[in-house]
Amino acid sequence: MKCLFLLSGENIRLAKEEVLSLLVPKKHKVVNNLLILETEDINLADRLAYTKKTFQLLFETNKEKIIEDIKRFEWQSIYKENFCVRIHKLCDAQKGGGGGREGGKNRLNTNLATGWDRGVGTSEKQLADHIWDKLKSPKVNLTNPKTSIEFFITKDKIYAAKLIKELKHSFESRKAHKRPELHPTALNPKLARALINLAGAQKEVMDPFCGAGGILIEAGLIKLKPIGYDLYKDMVKRSKINLDHYKIRPYKLINQDALKIKAKYNYIVSDLPYGLNTSIWVKKGNENKKLSLKQKDKKQRIKNIEEFYLKFLKILKKILKKKAVIIFPNYVNYKSLIKKANLKIEKEFSQFIHGSLTRKIVVLK
Taking the model in full, what pTM does it have? Predict the structure, then answer.
């Protein structure tokens, strides 16, 4: 089926890659914040975090041929009970469009029965009249239609589509401060979900630094088995409380140093520890010592973090079967560390947090 995805304007590149990583289409194209592709399993799209709506693409046309193509299309084949028509005019994205600090947002203007473009004079009602004429027992429902037909107008083309689903997730209700157990540096649930999808994860996901379980929760809610490791018993306990709160089953939690993991996993997703309240293991002489990141010497702190990250990446190289999605802070030389660990970067993204921190999201294989 040929499908159309209305992507979130927060970060269009991340939204696009999330869809492509999950559905793996042979071909695709992006027009403004629309992603068009063919897929056999649209049900996987329910997992998507940065997609607003999914559609069945009916046909492509232009302003000159729109009425002719509407009259030609077999509307009865996609009609159920009642219908409504909506027109959206997509404004051009700014160059580098990605949302946030990666580029400007696209804007979607919904022009109700006022005509979609000056000089064209075609309204939702006029389009609906032509569709009405092609149906056997037409009924209109403007508030809760069973068949929502939407037209997306871009600079050169018009895309006619039937709504499959509006993706409404309760990410806001699962933010860290609203869970039973808090972790101060926990990811936004929306981003956590996207990371899992960027990995193309199936069946299970492992987080070697699970903290209070933010990534594990999102994995469990999309029917993947969450597996979490953490050095601290308190964090494992917090993860358990949070996973039980969201009624996630089955899951596996292990109180173990990430540098000692030996089991292999297909998909690994993690936000590496870098907060000032974090302790890491570093080599001092012939011994490994636990070291707090609360240090005044910034250069030494970064050096310690990079030493720890390199150790972990070398472990990751041994235990990773397919893909990993790892978040690094921007102030470490993550590309050099990845190269030293003999891992390969497939994709990477940036997410601005504040003046001194940008997250570097890296897909590894």
Answer: 0.88
